[in-house]
Design goal:
Blueprint (H helix, E strand, L loop, with lengths): L1 H27 L6 H6 L5 H8 L2 H26 L3 H14 L4 H15 L6 H19 L8 H21 L3 H16 L23
């Protein structure tokens, strides 16, 4: 019983610190955010931050993981709503890139995140996205819908294209205009993986047809 209470308390403390870090990093940026300020805001100490995350960078990693994971969940929801399969995969990519217009996503995940945490493709949240993309591509490959290429390589390049499109949008002086260009180019590149005329026929299987077309 006591161990369960301690675990719940630790999880509560972690959640408070993550939310405090998320607010402080979003408002002030990673460099300007004070550890004393963000811990005091939730009635905790530096010691609690060090115990749970090691340091300020560790807290930033937890914040970014939470936001990026939520982005992936929203993208996957868009994929399901598009009917799954190839249209779903493209809907996921579009949704992820479109989230680069969100100010919090821009600052924490796409601008400060890479500068503090390094290559985004190595983040745990991005690896989970990779596994999901590989699963969808494996199904499409088994159905004969895409060209015979290595699934992991294709998944890494598709996810990398979406991620880099989002990074470009976030850093752009005109994010809306950049978004339109990025999405058009992303879809053009991605369609190269499909077998010739795979989506063109009305007789194409449902996992290839866009339900909104």
């Amino acid at each position: 019983m006591a161990s369960g209470i301690r675990a719940a308390k630790m999880e509560e403390t972690r959640a408070k610190l993550i939310e405090a870090g998320r607010k402080a990093f979003a408002e002030k940026g990673y460099s300007a955010a004070s550890m004393d300020d963000l811990t005091a805001a939730v009635g905790l100490t530096r010691g609690a931050l060090y115990h749970n995350f090691g340091d300020k960078r560790g807290l930033m990693a937890a914040v970014v993981d939470k936001i990026d994971s939520a982005m992936a969940a929203r993208a996957q929801k868009a994929g399901r709503e598009a009917g799954g399969g190839w249209p779903g995969l493209m809907a996921e990519g579009r949704a992820y890139v479109e989230m680069a217009l969100d100010p919090e996503v821009q600052r924490l995940v796409l601008l400060d995140g890479p500068s503090v945490l390094g290559d985004p493709s190595q983040w745990p949240s991005q690896n989970r996205c990779l596994q999901s993309t590989m699963a969808t591509l494996t199904e499409l490959s088994q159905a004969g819908a895409i060209k015979a290429v290595d699934i992991e390589a294709l998944a890494r390049l598709l996810n990398g294209a979406a991620l880099n499109a989002a990074l470009w949008v976030a850093a752009s002086d005109d994010p809306e205009a950049t978004l339109r260009k990025a999405l058009a180019a992303f879809e053009c590149l991605a369609e190269g993986a499909l077998k010739a005329d795979a989506c063109k026929s009305d007789e194409a299987p449902c996992f290839l047809r866009d339900p909104h077309s």
